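From the thread on structure requests for the teaching lab: each student submitted one protein with a one-line request. Submission from student K.M.:

"Model Aspartate aminotransferase from Desulfonauticus submarinus, tokens only."
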Amino acid sequence: MQLAQRILEVPPSATLAVNAKAQELKKQGKDIISLAVGEPDFSPPTEVKNALLEAVNEEFFQYLPVPGLTELRQAGANYFKRFYGAEASFEEVMFSNGGKQCLYNLFQVLLNPGDEVLIPAPYWVSYPPMVQLAGAVPKIIPTSLENDFELTLEELERSIGPKTKMLILNSPSNPTGVNYSEKKLVALAKLALEKGLFVISDEVYDQLVYAPSIPVSLSRLWTEYKDQLAIVNALSKSFALTGLRVGFVLTSKNIIKAMTKLQGQSCSNICSIVQRAALVALQGDFNFLDEKRKLLRERRNLAIKLLNNLELVCPRPDGAFYLFPEIKKYFKGEIKDSTSLCNYLLEEAGVALVPGIAFGDDNCVRISYAVSQEVLVQALEKVYHALKKI
Ligand SMILES: Cc1ncc(COP(=O)(O)O)c(C=O)c1O
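Reply posted by the TA:
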């Protein structure tokens, strides 16, 4: 059977090759350390786990309203008030299967064929294919290491054309970990909003920002720009609940209605028992995150120190759990890009990293430090020795 054109046009994931190879080497009995993971290594709070168990025991298994239980949507709205002072009603919040489905729904209900979506690179892997699946055109804006991979106002202004419909901002960023200052993020958003663009702010790492840096949310602009703004968040990274698939979005009632229609015709409500756990998480105490942030900040410091030994340059990330160093000085002979370098490191050092090309920058690799300090030291020492051989 011939597959549909739209899926044929979506490029295969650049991370798949490295992952498949890592699996193959593991099967052969090789010792492989993965610094390629995109999830935290801590546990969610006990009360969140208990809420899941209670919901199972109560057989809370029925269909629910498509956008989520009203009390959960209210808890989602309260989140934006509690952390960022944004006044939102439950009707302006909807729950989907992870931040990912929130983004997918937004693109599907907002984009028409030919619309252009501005995506600053390095970007999270799924933005361009999701935009393409909505029939629109991803327009990548390269940023520079000299500016810590932050988009500048000039770069943004230059990129806006007659077909531009939307801008995606992501802070803290996957893959760079960079957290914009409030002044910079708001200035970028306002430039786009005042030119009539729709702005999506992907804030799934907002709870993982390290002091003295503070998280910034574009929900601060909520009251002024309701019709042009969507704030995407999730419990995946902050509560270490990646597999439960809980994402929520703040946007106008009209867009929420459209996304409810779409989700109602595709997968309906997110898992019922998961909604009960999500409610406990959102209504609960976020203080447990202080210790996690401290731990991640220590690992960040350690990883940066180890990278300095390798004379690799990368922005000092203030959030998430990734580093995105430039490695192009090691491109020699057979090693000609980020993919061949990652393949080499996998074979020679037994360490899996993600090639930067997956994030739109072939001169870099992504290193996740969501592993213990011992594993981090072990892995980066192996990388060090392998790179010295090039
Ligand atoms: C920047 C960014 N946005 C969205 C997502 C999707 O998150 P979720 O697992 O909640 O779908 C991820 C996951 O890695 C991410 O890194």
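TA comment: Residues 38, 98-100, 124, 170, 174, 202, 204, 234, 236, 242, 247 surround pyridoxal-5'-phosphate (CB under 6 Å). The chain has a mean pLDDT of 95.
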